[in-house]
Design goal:
single chain, alpha/beta, Arc Repressor Mutant, subunit A, D-Maltodextrin-Binding Protein, domain 2, 2 domains, 7-stranded mixed sheet, two-stranded antiparallel sheet, 11 helices
Length: 303
């Protein structure tokens, strides 16, 4: 085997620089000094006999070859991590570190209910959480930055294994004394598109809601400015419009202190599937199935 091969540390430096676009921030994320990271990248370029990064005072620009190397580096680093995970998984399951991404429309409502059970059943598990929208969460999963993600389906997340934990239904939320308040459920045809408030682009809940309503004109007319479900609730409570909320948010008493009225959405696909997903062929596959079972039971018993 050739001794002139890139080291995993050099590849980590390169990937960090691509992610942060700044030498100082990249070095900080790798827990090294900026000079150490710069020296490691120069060694990598010398080893490969090519320029991967164009350095200027203001910007860090990757060469076309540099971008290709970064993609391969992601794959190699992920496989190296999976090698370590394989050895870890051969011991006691669900112990040690586990990194999970959770989307913002799930994290504040689901985690407070599930984490106590997880700590009780798996006290040796060190769970590190990061909150990010679905696209970023899937990228983090495939780049090896997290081990699994908790998000909502349907959503195109590439080649993953997954388990559905439960179905989360949608409800229409509107100000009290609204003239269109029916006694039971609300048909999508009754939703006034000029008053509909939705989360801004990037949140998959917005796409799930629009798909459930099955009214193409809603996408063009709705106001998509909410940065969180809590923001939308405040806007509705102040008479600025109506919105749709998932059942888990209502169960977490997001409407406490408001005069908002809710009714179930009457549609064929008026829900989303809360799902745990991980990389296909992960050596920790059995552990993730165990984790999904714990999370599912935690939700069912807390409902």
């Amino acid at each position: 085997m050739s001794s002139f091969l890139p080291t995993l540390k050099q590849l980590q430096y390169l990937v960090a620089l691509k992610e942060h676009g700044h030498f100082g921030k990249a070095a900080e994320s790798c827990f090294v000094t900026q000079s150490t990271l710069s020296a490691g990248l120069r060694e990598l370029e010398s080893l490969l006999d090519c320029t991967l990064v164009e350095r200027t005072r203001r910007v860090v620009r990757f060469t076309p070859l540099g971008n290709q190397v970064v993609e391969r580096a992601h794959r190699l680093l992920r496989e190296a991590e999976e090698l370590a995970e394989l050895a870890k998984a051969s011991g006691k399951p669900l112990t040690g570190e586990l990194r999970m991404s959770v989307i913002p429309t799930i994290a504040p409502f689901l985690l407070p209910r599930l984490l106590p059970r997880l700590r009780q059943e798996k006290p040796d598990l060190k769970l590190y959480l990061r909150e990010e929208v679905s696209t970023a969460a899937c990228d983090s999963l495939h780049h090896g930055q997290v081990d699994c993600i908790l998000f909502a389906m349907p959503f195109a997340c590439g080649e993953v294994e997954s388990e559905t934990l439960f179905t989360d239904s949608f409800h229409v939320a509107f100000p009290k004394d609204d003239p269109r308040d029916p006694p039971t459920s609300i048909d999508p045809a009754l939703i006034d598109e000029t008053r509909l408030l939705l989360l801004e682009d990037g949140h998959c809940l917005k796409d799930h809601v629009l798909a459930a309503c099955n009214r193409p004109e809603l996408s063009a007319s709705a106001t998509m400015i909410g940065t969180s479900l809590h923001t939308l609730v405040q806007m509705v409570d102040n008479g600025l419009g109506l919105t749709l909320l998932p059942d888990m948010a209502l169960s977490s008493e997001i409407l406490t202190g408001t005069s908002i009225v809710t009714r179930p959405l009457k549609a064929q696909q008026a829900s989303r599937d809360i799902t745990l997903a991980w990389r296909k062929n992960s050596p920790r596959d059995e552990e993730f199935h165990m984790l999904a079972d714990i999370l599912r039971r935690g939700w069912q018993e807390g409902a």
